[in-house]
Amino acid sequence: MWGSPRSRLLGLILTSVLVLFWMPGFGSRFIAPWDVLGDLWSGFIQGGWHVRETLDAQIFWQIRLPRVLFAFLAGSGLAVSGMTFQALFRNPLTTPYTLGIASGASFVAVLATFFGLTVMIGTYSFPGLFGLVGAFGTMLLVYSLASLRRYFSMEVLLMAGVAINYWMASAVVFVQYASDYTNVFRVLRTLLGGFEGITYGSFLELLPFVLPGLLILAGLCNELNLIALGDEIAVGRGLELAKTRQWLFVATALIVGGTVAVCGPIGFVEIIAPYICRLLIGSNHRILMPATFCLGGILLCVCDTVARTLIAPAEIPVGALTALLGGPFFIVLLLRKNLGKVSL
Fold first, then answer.
1. pLDDT bracket for residue 225 (50, 70, 90)
2. Which residues, other chains included, contact 170 with Cβ-Cβ below 8 Å and sequence gap of 6+?
3. Which of 94, 139, 164, 180 is buried most, with the most CB atoms less than 10 Å from its CB?
4. What pLDDT, on a 0 to 100 scale, did the predictor assign at position 76?
């Protein structure tokens, strides 16, 4: 493998920049990014920033670019959340979906869709607040169930999460069954996960959830390194284990809850990206986190581009496409002889 972990991280950062530059150009027909950027620069030279009102410029700036930015932010947040859970449980296949956080967010988001509820803050509509309530409610429920035992353990927490995950999924099916035809379609679109109709406003709806969560996790990278070594070592080195875990759960619930509510559940990004980054970068979370951030964004941007161009002008929900990729990825993991050798 070429280079050091830092050089590979630099490669991922540069690839992220290229993806953000190139992906808005792809669609039912290709729009060269340098053409629209050239128009923008010409406008600046002529007296101010403005975009020449051509059809290509409108498609690029108003439809494709916000969607690519949104996909990158959502993929980055989900991937970093998956990295956090892999360190917490010291298992490369554990994710916030496993613990039921995503299912809880989906359930409350589906209820909001069913009843037509939303929250207005100023001129913006924030349906993501309902997903946040579901994510935090599920997290508190799972954590409380695990705390009922005399000795708290991550194994019990995981089993409680799996049970709640199935219960929430069943509740979503019940709501869908009780809906009329219009709501059934809306609920189905929510559950598939997709970026249809994404605008800059959608990006602004997601940002208040993902950004604070990422900042919290970035501040706890050293603590994640200690937790990955084992509870006894972490406590022996002075880590307040219970408090740190609570902050990690809060940050991941913030990211996952907001993402699921705004664009629906999108699976497997939170497994694939951190697993590949651990192979490339190693287990030092101070380097692993930015690498996972970049690869998660790259992966979801590429998947969304394929989803909206493969059968254009129609498009595939990106959540369905990532699920199709996730199945073969799991099979490859099962066939790998060194599955258990990925350093956590």
1. very high
2. none
3. 139
4. 97
Encoded tokens for 247: 């902050």
The CATH code of the domain that includes 144 is: 1.10.3470.10
Kindly report the pTM of this predicted structure. 0.90
Of 73-77, 302-306, 323-327, the one with minimum mean pLDDT is 323-327
User: What is the pLDDT, as a whole number, of residue 128?
Assistant: 59
Residue 52 confidence (pLDDT) above 60 = no
Triad 35, 63, 184: Cα angle to 5°: 160
Amino acid 50 reads: H
The three-point CA angle 325-86-341 to 5° equals 85
pLDDT tens string 244-296: 999 999 999 999 988 988 888 898 899 999 999 998 999 999 999 999 999 99
Q: What is the DSSP string of 167-212?
A: HHHHHHHHHHHHS-HHHHHHHHHHHH---TT--HHHHHHHHHHHHH
Tokens 């996730």 sit at which residue?
326
- For 243, counting Cβ atoms within 10 Å of its Cβ (0-12 exposed, 13-18 middle, 19+ buried), the class is exposed
Q: Give the residue among 211, 106, 225 at the shortest CA–CA distance from 165.
A: 106
The domain tally of the chain equals 1
Which burial class, exposed, middle or buried, applies to 30 when counting CB atoms under 10 A from its CB (0-12, 13-18, 19+)? Answer: exposed
Position 40 scores a pLDDT of: 61
Q: Which residues are within 8 A (CB) of 247 and not within 5 positions of it... i.e. 6 or more apart?
A: 216, 220
Rounded to the nearest integer, the mean pLDDT of the chain is 85
CA distance 293 to 310: 26
Is the CB of residue 301 less than 8 Å from the CB of residue 78? no
Query: Are 316 and 307 spatial neighbours (Cβ–Cβ below 8 Å)?
Result: yes
